[in-house]
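Good morning,

Attaching, inline, the backbone tokens for the sequence recovery test we're adding to the shared suite. The designed sequence is right after.
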């Protein structure tokens, strides 16, 4: 079938290359139309013999050649929303299409991205990254203090207690090293134990995991009250008040100075639950009057119970708080090692 053939007076959709006799006219082939059997244009087709017109390619298809009996479906990664098209359109970045003959593309779902156009699939976000919005061209790095150990995720996970992450885009958090702890989730660093104390293992979660590393000061444990750390050093024969004060100073603390009933109840209840017979405190007693040496207000809080003989003689200015079914006091020389006392730091 050639475009130079002339149908003469043959009916539409037929032709005769030799005579005007309609008895010898033939049907035009698929892909051509009417009397002259003209080839369908690109973007059109005709799949019937003897047709007088061509049809536009439907949406989702195309035809880039003339004289065609069919249109071609848009391949994956492309689409066409119009009819009569000669080409398909590549999916935009952030989109994909995995089907043939599509009239539109789809946005990449959360946890995925696509940075190139004309793609049949999206890519999963790598570990350490996330994407919480559809139709994106990149993924975001997990912020410091968070991690993501799986691909294709829409969120990151906070570092658990005892762990931290100071960098972005990480697939894991790091356990706090020995000598540090972290009691909050989502941390970017760990907290160092007070000077002179350390932890027994990595991944510690509380200040109470810090124990005194000086054999003269430990063992013991740390508790928190009213925003402050308190260290309770176990009793030890031969420990003087001066030695106890040094232990506290090594941890950046002082011997406890109790300023109100609430603080007294906190210290008292924790001392009562241990094997303490007594503990060194920060008191200085002179002429039967005691003060807290390092407390900001230097007012001695007397709980009003028990009460030993406190003469505050010049050679016995230091005080042991005694526990024996009730609070009692014992003033001693600051260098005395005769009392099996513990100590409390704050």
């Amino acid at each position: 079938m050639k475009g130079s053939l002339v149908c003469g007076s043959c009916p539409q959709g037929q032709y005769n290359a030799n005579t005007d006799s309609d008895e010898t006219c033939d049907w035009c082939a698929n892909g051509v139309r009417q009397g002259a059997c003209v080839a369908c244009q690109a973007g059109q087709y005709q799949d019937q013999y003897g047709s007088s017109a061509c049809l536009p390619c439907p949406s989702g298809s195309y035809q880039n050649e003339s004289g065609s009996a069919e249109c071609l479906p848009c391949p994956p990664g492309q689409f066409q929303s119009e009819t009569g098209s000669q080409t398909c359109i590549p999916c935009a970045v952030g989109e994909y299409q995995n089907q043939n003959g599509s009239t539109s593309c789809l946005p990449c779902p959360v946890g995925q991205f696509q940075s190139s156009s004309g793609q049949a699939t999206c890519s999963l976000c790598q570990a350490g990254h996330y994407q919480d919005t559809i139709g994106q061209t990149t993924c975001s790095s997990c912020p410091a203090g968070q991690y993501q150990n799986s691909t294709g995720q829409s969120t990151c996970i906070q570092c658990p207690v005892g762990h931290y992450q100071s960098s972005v885009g990480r697939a894991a958090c790091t356990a706090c090293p020995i000598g540090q702890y972290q009691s909050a989730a989502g941390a970017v660093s760990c907290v160092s134990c007070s000077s002179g104390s350390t932890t027994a293992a990595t991944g510690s979660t509380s200040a109470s995991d810090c124990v005194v590393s000086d054999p003269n000061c430990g063992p013991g444990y740390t508790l928190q009250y009213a925003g402050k750390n308190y260290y309770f050093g176990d009793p030890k024969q031969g420990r003087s008040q001066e030695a106890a004060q040094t232990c506290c100073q090594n941890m950046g603390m002082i011997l406890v100075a109790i300023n109100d009933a609430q603080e007294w109840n906190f210290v008292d209840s924790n001392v009562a639950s241990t094997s303490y017979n007594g503990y060194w405190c920060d008191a200085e007693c002179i002429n039967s009057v005691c003060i807290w040496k390092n407390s900001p207000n230097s007012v001695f809080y007397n709980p009003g119970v028990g009460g030993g003989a406190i003469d505050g003689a010049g050679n016995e200015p230091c005080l042991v708080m005694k526990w024996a079914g009730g609070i009692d006091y014992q003033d001693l020389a600051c260098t005395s090692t005769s009392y099996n006392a513990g100590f409390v730091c704050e």
